[in-house]
Every structure is written in C-alpha cells, then in structure tokens.
Amino acid sequence: MGEEQQRAADDAAAEDMTSEGGEQQEHSPLEAALGLLAEAEAKRDEYLADLQRLAADFDNFRKRVARDQESLVQRAGERLVKELIPVLDDLERAAEVAAKTTETTLAEGVGMVHRALHGLLTKEGLHEVEADGQFDPHRHEALMQQPSEQPEGTVLSILQKGWRLGDRVLRPARVVVAGPQPEPPPDADQPSEQGKGA
After folding, report:
1. CATH code at 164?
2. Nearest-CA neighbor of 26 among 14, 37, 18?
3. Global pTM exceeds 0.70
C-alpha cells in the first residue's frame, strides 16, 4: 500500500504540474501579446514625439528661411538705392544750375530726369530725413555749430540732405546746429569791480 500511495501521490503531482503548465501556457500567449502591445505603444509614443519635434524644427526652419530671404531682398534693394543717392544729389544740383541759365530746354530736361529718378526711389521707400527742430544724432550729422538766438541744439540749416529707406537711415542729414550765444564783451565805460571798492 505504501507503493500504491506513492504512485498515487506521484500521479497527482504530475497532474498538478500538467494543469499548472497548461494554465501557464494559456496565460503566456496573452501575457506575451500584452507585453508586445506595451512595447509597440512605447515605440509609437517615441516615434510620435520625434515626428512632432521634427515638424516644429521644420516650421522654425521655414520661418527663418522666409525672414532671411526677405532681409536679403531688402538689403539688395537698399544697396542699389544707396548707390543712386549721389546721382540724385548731382541731378538736383544740375537742375538748380540749369534753372539759372537761359537754356530752358536744358533746365526742363534735367528737371524731368531728376523728378523721374526721385519718384522711382520714393516708390522704393526712399524718403528725405527730416531736419526740422532739434538735432538727433540718429538722423543728423552736425558739421558745425553757430551762435544763434534759437535754443541750443536746434537745426539751423541743411548742408546736405539725409536719406532713409523705410525706418533705416542710409545717410544722415549734414546740418548746422545752434550753439550757445557768445558772452557780450564788458563795457569799457563801466568801472571794474576793483574800482568800485576803492
């Protein structure tokens, strides 16, 4: 009977192991599938984050390229306008001289060319720097100072026009600025301070 009991116990243990193994086999494909699913979801989240970063980087790149291109176009136009300013100045001087001559056709021709060039550059955004009022070192270049009854620092006259393209000053206006009034010389008729005390 001891042998039979031992056999029965071994059979029961084998049955338990078979049933446990069967349960493990039933759960193991499910657990494996859940593990694979979790791993796939983690990869998906990682790829989505990478894609979102890439999209943001591309958007920033696109905006930067657009800004750079706009800046390049503006600088190219600025360079051309800056080189044409002396031509505009020369035409203005020629128109002034031609107006003083008796040759009306010369004066009209030079005036027409000057107006055409000035109009074209104005359409491109070129404007004269305002030189009224107080001296502004961002817009004016003081070439000299003159005593004046005007408040000190007031622009008295323009020696050369200044030009700006949009908000950017291409050439400051060269101006004469009001300086302090000279001190009046002491009168010879009035006694000096030392003479009063004696």
Report:
1. 2.30.22.10
2. 18
3. no
